[in-house]
């Protein structure tokens, strides 16, 4: 049986997902709203297509964050994609997805990231090559074990209908992917990550990204509600800014989505909206033994079972 590929159904879901997530995050913020910038590009040497970039600034809970939808087309895949999948060379492609990053004010509220996406590469006379990808991950500064457990429980529950091994595989993939080799630490406490998903029929793969996309808010919003009013001082703020530097390092050096967007001539402002509004670096920083800052390093920045 050949899968029926329904690009319009995917696009419709992604647009509604962007709306739903924005509404939930605005509600939990209670002060700011997302400002939308719709953009469009005519097909050319690089990317055509368009999207809706939505950014929130200076909210009651979120210092800055963005929830983006994009649907782009191109005549050839960029080097970051063909190095991974050489069979894509010479094909035109479409890529669509929702990608988001939220940076909270309060250091006790984790930064969060989620992404669901669909790629299809086509060439006359040949079968299309398609796949889904995505996931979500959590980057706390001052972690609470119960929050991390909740995050992974949501991930585990949404994976279960798709097979007993899916959570373990995509959890491990997330731990491996969001890893900074030059720091020898993970970016945070992980979650789910997957790419090149086409091992099931199209509809089952599509159902899985629906579950992942909708699971993000179920995992994140309760944590935000629980922690956003917790008092903090300058020490916690400075540590938050320092750890945000790791986020920048990962996104600019290792993240395949960022590299794909920049190498293919994507919209730079939309690609780099994942950056925090403020971050800092400090030479040879070491947390004091026995502190909450040290606990992040010792207990949370290495993969663990939840």
Short description:
The protein has 306 residues and is α+β, with helices and mostly antiparallel strands. It contains 9 helices and 9 strands.
How would you characterize the overall build of this protein?
- It is a single chain.
- The protein is 39% helix and 26% strand.
- With 306 residues, the protein is α+β, with helices and mostly antiparallel strands.
- The strands form 2 sheets. Strands 1-2-3-4-5-6-9 form a 7-stranded antiparallel sheet. The protein has a two-stranded antiparallel sheet with strand order 7-8.
- The chain is globular and about 65 Å long.
Show unreliable segments.
Answer: none
Shape: globular
Order of helices and strands: HEEEHEEEHHEEEHHHHH
Please provide the count of β strands: 9
Q: Enumerate how many helices there are, as a single number.
A: 9
Question: How does the major sheet shape up?
Answer: 7 strands, antiparallel
Structural class: alpha+beta
Give the termini distance in whole angstroms: 38 Å
The fraction of residues assigned to DSSP E strands is 25-35%
What is Rg? 19 Å
Q: Which strand order does the major sheet show?
A: 1-2-3-4-5-6-9
Give me the secondary-structure topology.
Layout (H helix, E strand, L loop, with lengths): L6 H23 L5 E7 L5 E11 L4 E13 L4 H4 L9 E13 L6 E12 L6 E11 L5 H15 L6 H12 L1 E2 L4 E2 L3 E8 L4 H26 L6 H20 L2 H8 L4 H4 L20 H8 L7
Antiparallel strand pairs: 1-2, 2-3, 3-4, 4-5, 5-6, 6-9, 7-8
